[in-house]
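Recap slide: MFS transporter, sequence and predicted structure.
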Amino acid sequence: MATQPRPSPVLDSARGWVTVATAFVSMAVVFAVAYSFGAFFAPMAAEFGSGNGATSLVFGVTAACWFLLSSVTGRIADRIGPRPLLITGAAALTAGLLLTAAVERLWLGYLTYGLGVGVAVACGYVPLVAAVGGWFARRRAVALAVAVAGIGVGTLIGAPLAAALIAAHGWRQTHVVFGLAGGVLLLLCAVAVRRPPEPAQNAPALGTRALLRTPAFRSLYVATLLSSVALFATLVFLPPYAAAAGATPVAAAALVGIIGVSSVVGRIAIGAYAERAGHIRTFRASFAVLAGSFALWLAADLLAGSFPALVAFAVVLGVGYGGWIALAPAVLAELFGVRGLGGVVGLSYTSSGFGALLGAPLAGLLVDLTGGYGGIVVGAGVCALGAHLALRPLGRADLGAR
């Protein structure tokens, strides 16, 4: 049940920045776990004797779960705030990973890992984005950029840490460590988080049908869907691609970490730049960078998997990806307002759920059918270019959509 509106504290205040810090930690935790799956891929496939497509479906189910559930958790957060959702996410993360550590069949991992990690990310991501967006007006883009930089830090830390722990203790024990540590950190975030004040605007939040009828929302939805297919295929298969080209397991997993650290730079720098250049214009430019990065992976492929070229690809991809993730909530707030922002962001992110569900499994199927990774490189690049083109109609005229 929704609580009664409370007196509104001053926006852009110190209390808002506490929520930014909490959101940063929450996103770092859940994405450190989620985006470390590439390090678990090979040992899990080897133990279960499964193909690339079947193993990558674990991640596909997980990402689809968190993005599709985000439309639910976002609307719940609009009503009751993010704290109960963070507590739920902590329980789901710990239970899901402890159960995954004990499974004897891969299909059970679809349920334990997919639901456990998926629910945790759905509870620790969009509700916190909405909370940060509600605490700020003048500095919203910068605050959101700092908050979602936690995703990049989690990506940087998670995959190399998982690879090192797997080498020392095995993939099952690593899931236990991640589950217990992650659950504790999310509970601490639940203690610290603050619900944002009620927005001053009187216009009601747009419903799902009204949003889907606007050209601006449809353009954003298609672009996010296509870019997610490219991104999640990359996050799952870039480490095994690099390992097949001769990189060590830790070095291969570190490529995902490089994407993470460069995305942190991209989120903060591009978020600050967007305050001057305009959110929508900078958002489109981020997608252009994301699409252009795949030319570097293609070049690396032509150079027999050159590791320096793969590092360059990871850096450029991370910058474009960081700008996309940092600015998406600010663009949605600019187009549709902050009232009900959690529901709007959540609905938008369901497109990423479909992209994740398609991207990694289709990429794995391509590897199984062709025996190589060239199809992933080309296919992901085409999807990223399509995402950029889908945003071309998005402009200042769309501000009249509401």
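The radius of gyration is 20 Å.
Residues 14-197+205-400 form a domain with the Growth Hormone; Chain: A; fold (CATH 1.20.1250.20).
(End of recap.)
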